[in-house]
Amino acid sequence: MRPADMLRLLLLASIWGASFLFLRVVAPVIGSMPTAFFRAAIAMLGLLAILLLMRVKWNFHGKLGLCLVLGVINAGIPSAMYSLAALVLPAGYSAIINATTPMMGVLIGALFFAEAMTLTRAAGVALGLFGVAVLTRSGPVELDIDLVLGALACLLATLCYGLAGFLTRRWIAGGLDNRLTAFGSLCGASLFLLPLFGGSLAIQPPATWGGWLEWSSLLALGLGCTAFAYVLYFRLLNDIGPIRASTTTFLIPIFGVLWGALLLDEPLSWAHLYGGILIAIALWLVVRPATKAPA
């Protein structure tokens, strides 16, 4: 891997790790559903501007509807779940639990897509869930029902990410520009979150819409952590391939915990290390290449 590719990989991990920080700043002030909707809508408009500047050819090959449905699964529901979790979970917690995404992919593949579930992968899934339990039970935040519900919301988001990977391969594979897939997904996510946003305003409107800190964090979340991150990620996919690009999953928790501790004064404990190590080992068990049997 070239030094420039390594720098882009670290930059992408730091950007995605910061997304949990921005969620933690915005969601408790304006609410979870407004945060989720504005994130998707700002990202959609930002990516639209990027695509217009790049003069991308607008041809969805009849798959726009599939992209919209895919957007509900890979962006709409996860955005809502992480925004809900940001009301109660420190940014570092959400970032570490986000690393269970490959494990959820293995679980979804075995249950619904006839993917082989090896003993090693099964052990990885079990170990990863145990790592989440260690983090939430032994971490610096007091264990209560809100903490458990926040962790479950993050796990539901990673479950959606795992499902979206298989659906993308089945519905979108071949012939469609990845950037158009991303834009269509953000359109679907925005449409899905719009009624949730309206319902939250009708039931319990925010006491305040925040100030410059919250809205600058929303812009950073939508434009930087979503729209720009998509472009950077697709560049990495082209340059180093999907396997190496997926190693951002290992790096995101490090930056998520770091930004939370440095900028939000979130407490650190040994549980961050223990839970993070368990999840890292679980990820290695899940994504490591299978050894070939001797002839």
Automatic annotation (TrEMBL):
Q: Does the keyword Endoplasmic reticulum apply?
A: no
Q: Which residues cross the membrane?
A: 7-30, 36-54, 66-89, 95-114, 119-135, 147-168, 180-203, 215-233, 245-264, 270-287
Q: Kindly give the Pfam families that the UniProt entry links to this protein.
A: EamA
**Keyword S-adenosyl-L-methionine in annotation:** no
Report the principal subcellular site. membrane
The record places domain EamA at 9-136, 149-287
Q: Where in the cell is it found?
A: Membrane
Membrane topology annotation: Multi-pass membrane protein
| Signal peptide coordinates | none
Against PANTHER family, the record matches this protein to: AMINO-ACID METABOLITE EFFLUX PUMP-RELATED, INNER MEMBRANE TRANSPORTER
What is the protein's name according to its record? Drug/metabolite transporter (DMT)-like permease
Native species: Phytopseudomonas flavescens
Q: What is the lineage of its organism?
A: Bacteria, Pseudomonadati, Pseudomonadota, Gammaproteobacteria, Pseudomonadales
